[in-house]
From TrEMBL:
PANTHER family: 2-AMINO-3-CARBOXYLMUCONATE-6-SEMIALDEHYDE DECARBOXYLASE (PTHR21240), ISO-OROTATE DECARBOXYLASE (EUROFUNG) (PTHR21240:SF28). It comes from the Bacteria. InterPro entries: ACMSD, Amidohydro-rel, Metal_Hydrolase. This is Amidohydrolase. The keyword Lyase applies. CDD domains: metallo-dependent_hydrolases (cd01292). It comes from Streptomyces brevispora. It holds the Pfam family Amidohydro_2. Coiled coil: none annotated. Gene3D superfamilies: Metal-dependent hydrolases (3.20.20.140). Keywords: Lyase.
Length: 294
């Protein structure tokens, strides 16, 4: 790590210039250490879901990762975690509840998988105070329209609890990724507070269209617009005006700590879109503050 705590000075200068009290990052990863080590090992192997070299920029122990986020001025963040098979989600939710108890600046995060009992443990997580859920269609390899999940979507829509969903086909397509399955889900549950991770890359335009059609759909910026992803799946310049029009429904996400560049680069990538300081203030703080009432 560099002398300025992994880029702290650049991050702080960014939000200070905007007159913000700090940042709210809706897409950060904290999970049980044995699970995180396996995730890192997968990135290290350039596995088929990444398909490219992916060095982890913030490969530190949990306490140091927390200290880094706080030094950056990240006021609230999440503990995005997800199962890749049945039988994991309830255990992960138990860990995440404990993490949120001991880390009060983390928005209590939970997850699910299409399996028997999913409605019960999701209801238990909501009752225990879960503020946001993570759904990963690529890693979980499940259809969001699986009948086992139908009561879950209804429960979350009714409770108004947002779901961050990795549903775009980047960095590599999955069996159930892409806008079509999500469109069918939203047609049945139009009030679902869905946050499309990674701006829906590479199907940016199609997921922007879903946000335009459904007022409760939002998108997070995770890895979008960065040099790393622009080389691989560039955001269409012609759609920048749509980003401006949806400025109240785009949220800062970074994928910390699992990013191959400094945290500040995500912020500078947003800044160079040249959509204005009001847009940046909304994306980096105000929209999430309003959504989560935090």
């Amino acid at each position: 790590m560099s002398d300025d705590l992994g880029g702290r000075d650049d991050v702080v200068r960014f939000w200070e210039r905007l007159g913000l009290p700090g940042l709210i990052d809706v897409h950060t990863h904290f999970m049980p250490e044995q699970v995180l080590r396996k995730v890192w090992a997968y990135f290290d192997s350039a596995g088929p879901l990444t398909g490219m070299e992916w060095p982890i920029a913030y490969r530190h122990e949990e306490d140091e990762r927390l200290a880094l986020l706080r030094s950056f001025g990240v006021l609230r963040f999440t503990s995005m975690l997800y199962p890749h098979k049945a039988g994991m989600a309830a255990w992960l939710n138990g860990w995440a509840a404990g993490f949120a108890d001991r880390v009060p600046d983390c928005l209590h995060t939970a997850t699910f998988f299409p399996e028997e009992g999913v409605e019960r443990y999701v209801a238990e997580a909501v009752g225990a105070g879960a503020r946001v859920f993570k759904s990963h269609l690529q890693v979980g390899a499940y259809d969001p329209n699986d009948p086992l999940l139908e009561p879950v979507w209804g429960l979350l829509a009714e409770a108004g609890v947002p779901v961050v969903m990795h549903c775009g086909s980047g960095p590599a397509p999955g069996k159930h990724t892409g806008p079509e399955p999500v469109g069918r889900l939203l047609a049945r549950h139009p009030r679902l507070r869905l946050i499309v991770a990674h701006m829906g890359m590479p199907e940016y335009a199609e997921f922007l269209a879903l946000a335009e059609a459904y007022p409760q759909v939002r998108l997070d910026t995770t890895m979008a617009f960065t040099d790393f992803m622009e080389d691989f799946t560039p955001f269409p310049v012609a759609d920048r005006g749509r980003l401006a029009a949806l400025g109240d429904r785009i949220l800062l996400g970074t994928d910390f700590p699992n990013i191959p560049y400094p945290y500040a680069h995500q912020l500078h990538a947003l800044e160079r879109l040249e959509l204005g300081d009001d847009w940046l203030r909304a994306v980096c703080h105000d929209n999430a503050k309003a959504l989560f009432d935090c």
